[in-house]
Prior knowledge:
Layout: H1 2-22, E1 27-38, E2 43-50, E3 58-62, E4 65-73, E5 76-79, E6 85-91, E7 94-101, E8 105-106, E9 109-115, E10 121-126, E11 133-144, H2 147-175
Parallel strand pairs: 3-4
Antiparallel strand pairs: 1-2, 1-11, 2-4, 3-6, 4-5, 6-7, 7-9, 8-9, 9-10, 10-11
Amino acid sequence: MYRLIYASVIAATLIGVQIPVAAKASTLSYNLTLTPIFGPESGTGSLTITVPPVGSSGFLTLGNGLTAMDFRIDGLDFKLNNFSEVSYFYQGSNLVLASLGYRGAIGNNQLLSLSLGGFGAYFFRDNVPGESTIGNISVSATPLPTTLPLLATGLGGLGLFGWWRKRKASAALAAA
Length: 176
């Protein structure tokens, strides 16, 4: 009876470990670093999206796939608003974010667009003449894991620990 339970726990653990590799996470978080080439502004940012269906293309907006966005550029904090959007497309099964648009201003500072695709550039525009910035953008994606595989892995680990303790106790009784 216990062997069947332990075999089930081990099988669930192995399946739980494989699920994150085989399945795509439903949410992706991107961290961005903005390095100026021409102009003074630099900064960091992040955005979180719900992964759109494979093969689709279009725009992700607030309430339609774009769940979080925050950019800190030279001490100014640009946050997700109703005019924020991320354009995307698929190359085969790979999701490609093409650009990020933001319309909003903090004082005389206005973020116009970030190109996330092939060019890897950003453009930050101030309403002050001569203070716009063009620079490089580096992006790193972090998939947020789903909870079911994590639960299965945790339960499998607990089952293996219980099996190990029982085996150790049985060996101690047999030796006595």
